[in-house]
């Protein structure tokens, strides 16, 4: 049990993932978090930002263009995997019993984003924890045209990766002292993540009460 707990702690520790797993671990985490429903808890935003910072500081010994392309492909292919699973197994997923790795509220919350923003959800969701994981699944579930999906999937993935990895790289190159504040960066992203999740919860609760 302790080994399992340590493993999950490792998966949510971006700094350790980057330092010990390198590019392969980053790519694998991004792929899973972007389209497999059980990967919603994995670090996304701050993993990308810190990978850019570490690359800029040459602590992650990978060319920035290789990093950008690899993470972009992982994000796009991960979302496509989510789309395919939603397209063919979406109904089974909706009827799936809740467990530690699956909550129907995540599906319902993503569905509301689609109702409000349509296909643009695939771009907006890139910056929204949990929704980022379930958006491509929902796109497949509602049978979004695959060409339309690819356009928004690629555009959203490109913006997400350029902003976070590119931004992190810029800070790493021009403000090397940022390495002393890595834990504060993680806390910053965690606060934003928590705020987004809490806000989404209360918004959903308010909508449900209005429908009654």
UniProtKB/TrEMBL annotation:
GO terms for cellular component: plasma membrane. It is found in: Cell membrane. Residues 42-169 form the VTT domain. InterPro entries: DedA-like (IPR032818), VTT_dom (IPR032816). The keyword Cell membrane applies. The chain crosses the membrane at residues 21-40, 46-64, 71-90, 123-142, 149-169, 181-202. The keyword Ribosomal protein does not apply. This is Alkaline phosphatase. Belongs to the DedA family. It holds the Pfam family VTT_dom. Keywords: Cell membrane, Membrane, Transmembrane, Transmembrane helix. It is a multi-pass membrane protein.
